[in-house]
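QA checklist item 7 of 12: single-chain prediction sanity check.
[x] sequence parsed
[x] length recorded as 447
[x] structure emitted
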Amino acid sequence: MSAFRPIVMIAAVAALSACSSAPKVWPFGSEAPGETAPSDGRISILSFEQKLEVDAALAGRTPYVPPATEVADWHQPGGPEDNAARHASIDGNFSIVARRSVGQGSTSNARISSPPVIADGKVFVLDAGQRLSAFPVNGGGRLWSRDLSPRRGRDKNALGGGVAFADGKLFVTSGYGFAAAIDASSGQEVWRTNTQAPIHAAPTVASGRVFAVTNDSELLALDADTGAIQWTHQAIAEPARILSASSPAVKGDLVVAPFASGEIVALLTANGRRLWVDALTRAGRLTSLSAINDIAGRPVAVDGVIYAASHSGILAAIDQRTGQRLWARGLASTQTPAVAGDTLFIVTVDGELAAIERMTGQVFWVTQLKRYRDEKDRKGRIAWTGPVLAGGKLVLASSEGQAVVVNPASGAVDKTLNVGGPVYIAPIAAAGSVFLLSDEGKLVVIR
């Protein structure tokens, strides 16, 4: 199975979905860490082609990670609504304790694209067949399930969708082109709204609103009680994107949404008024895949700063209120950064796991994870997803069906686990465990 399966051209998948559907690299004039910007504000493309390397200024320092705390729930696709997942405690030594089927796995016509959520002692999963199911978090059979696919219409398959939890309800988005609210205790549908376009990513729920981005790069704000669309924001449409579980971040009265064009936009949650926009796009790459600008990982909002990375090769720290870049690095990623203490942990599209100092963008350490099934002949490219910080370790999973446990202080791989199937969705950590949802519809529990 190809590690590049998550990359999908919109034109190619439109028939399978429910509905038809060059700014400067340094636009704010800041200087890249360790570089001096020319007087005209430009940054050399050649300087961005350098391999990630440890910064000499951090010699002798190691990342600070706050102690693990008990985390009972994982309500949103990114944990909390700001996507800044807490360091969760683990009730074991990082061994696989359970594998169970939770629904239909991915196929060429349908796929799992979003993580499960955990609330009230239950794990909720949306499978590739658009069936939403509830399971006891500590093991046991299915408590209830609901088939959310439309009973009428010509569309028989849908790619992706996701789920979030708030106020006793599950909020679901679907590749069939709708959003819905489901009672979390019974599985009964509360409301359903036609979104006019497919939604491959999970929603984010906050302050009585459901925020979701359609495949047409439109941000929707729906009333969580009724499903009524309160306001929308249309970003630049992009013909190519990465099929993944990117979701907005909400912090206070601000919603920060990522788009396939490489735009990241901050708006007021109440009315959708745009406060600022940045473009994490990078010209000069050598392959067609690298020209995809999508921000496929979720932006993280923490301590007044937004952290986000694009597939085309920009990782940036942006002031939450002004939109001013604080720093940026040449780094391509499809994953959500894990932010903890003074450090941001991120894995690149080339399998480099890096620890980056949050204030400056300088690199503590870089660990090269396995890139190919056959490293000698460079065949069988491997994609990595994560990390999540749990039990004092970083946990990542791969398209090759492995999970690795990494020391956040040094980057050393402490343990490798055989998951048993490819994983394209980042791990989550709650209820004393790490949960992996494989592409085959298996929920793997690590404790």
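[x] summary fact logged: The radius of gyration is 20 Å.
[ ] second reviewer sign-off
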